[in-house]
């Protein structure tokens, strides 16, 4: 069954990509054929949105899989143990701040964290890095600052809330899954054992092998997630959201849901968020900016592909709750 499921996912991802490339090239021709001219334009918009998500994410996916492959080839378990503080709680702080050094988005960080945990990084520390890195990095800070030029404190607030939220979630994960393996077994194991014998002979070749494995593993989840996100973007009625945009209680939750559905890359989501600035509260805008990079449709599928279902479901419950209450108290005292 595992082989059949993997084959179905691989085939679905490949067929989706082929279909949308075909539509991208021939959509205008199809519109002029009588059989297709009754199809609403929104269906053709799905294709445009899908490809824009893919093209936006691919550079970061490539970065992520190569970082992951380099970790597999060059980073040892002993190195990770030496770098991280021995205290489980103190280790959370440098993990949250790693994003400043490694500018990785939410698409690319999942395979990197999976590899780090395999190499011996404690699970809760890996989760903190996974949640904070897409927010606490220079690229995201710069894009947020420029998107909110009239209110530059939004960029600082985003960093602060992202840092605090990821630490709190890490603590909860530590208490719940202490000492437990949260990874699915035998992920990409068919190549890892074979490559291990060639480590000393050719590190570069080994890195390329691991990168290709990661790219195909991650790519199928990206394609399926991008397709689902493009469906929501094409058919979502944003006007229906505006009536509750000024509520300090409900607006953050609505914007978090919107961030999940739209699945915009963290390096560009600030410009999307700024378009809601005139109708939604600043607290809800911050909820959008913090929650979206942590959890969205794309990386949810990747999480289910790489981590145990029990852990992913727990993370999907805890993360929105922590972000919501962190934002709620922040806007209560500082906005």
UniProtKB/TrEMBL annotation:
High-level lineage: Bacteria, Bacillati, Bacillota, Bacilli, Bacillales
TM region(s), chain numbering: 12-30, 42-71, 91-113, 125-147, 153-174, 240-264, 311-334
Subcellular location: Cell membrane
Keywords per UniProt: Cell membrane, Membrane, Transmembrane, Transmembrane helix
Domain of life: Bacteria
Name by which UniProt lists this protein: Permease
Keyword Cell membrane: yes
The family this protein is said to belong to: Belongs to the UPF0718 family.
Transmembrane in keyword set: yes
Signal peptide (UniProt feature, chain positions): none
UniProt topology in membrane: Multi-pass membrane protein
Gene Ontology cellular-component annotations: plasma membrane
Pfam families linked to this entry: ArsP_1
Primary residence: membrane
InterPro entries: DUF318, UPF0718
């Amino acid at each position: 069954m595992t082989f059949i499921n993997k084959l179905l996912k691989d085939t679905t991802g490949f067929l989706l990509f082929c279909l949308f490339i075909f539509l991208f090239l021939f959509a205008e021709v199809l519109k002029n054929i009588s059989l297709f001219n009754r199809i609403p334009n929104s269906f053709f918009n799905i294709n445009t949105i899908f490809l824009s998500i893919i093209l936006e994410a691919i550079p970061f996916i490539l970065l992520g899989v190569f970082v992951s492959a380099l970790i597999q080839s060059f980073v040892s378990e002993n190195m990770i143990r030496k770098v991280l503080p021995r205290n489980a709680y103190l280790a959370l702080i440098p993990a949250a701040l790693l994003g400043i050094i490694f500018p990785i988005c939410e698409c690319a960080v999942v395979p990197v964290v999976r590899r780090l945990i395999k190499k011996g990084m404690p699970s809760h520390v890996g989760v903190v890095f996974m949640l904070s890195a897409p927010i606490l990095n220079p690229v995201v800070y710069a894009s947020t600052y420029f998107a909110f030029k009239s209110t530059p404190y939004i960029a600082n607030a985003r960093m602060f809330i992202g840092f605090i939220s990821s630490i709190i979630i890490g603590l909860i994960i530590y208490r719940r899954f202490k000492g437990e393996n949260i990874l699915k077994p035998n992920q990409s194991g068919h190549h890892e054992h074979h490559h291990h014998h060639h480590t000393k002979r050719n590190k570069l070749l080994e890195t390329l092998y691991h990168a290709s494995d990661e790219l195909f593993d991650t790519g199928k989840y990206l394609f399926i997630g991008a397709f689902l996100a493009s469906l929501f973007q094409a058919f979502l009625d944003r006007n229906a959201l505006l009536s509750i945009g000024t509520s300090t209680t409900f607006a953050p939750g609505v914007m978090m849901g919107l961030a999940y559905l739209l699945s915009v890359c963290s390096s560009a989501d600030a410009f999307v968020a700024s378009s809601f600035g005139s109708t939604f509260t600043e607290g809800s805008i911050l909820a959008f900016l913090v929650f979206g990079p942590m959890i969205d449709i794309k990386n949810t599928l990747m999480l289910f592909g790489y981590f145990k279902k029990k852990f992913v479901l727990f993370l999907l419950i805890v993360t929105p709750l922590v972000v919501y209450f962190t934002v709620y108290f922040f806007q209560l005292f500082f906005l």
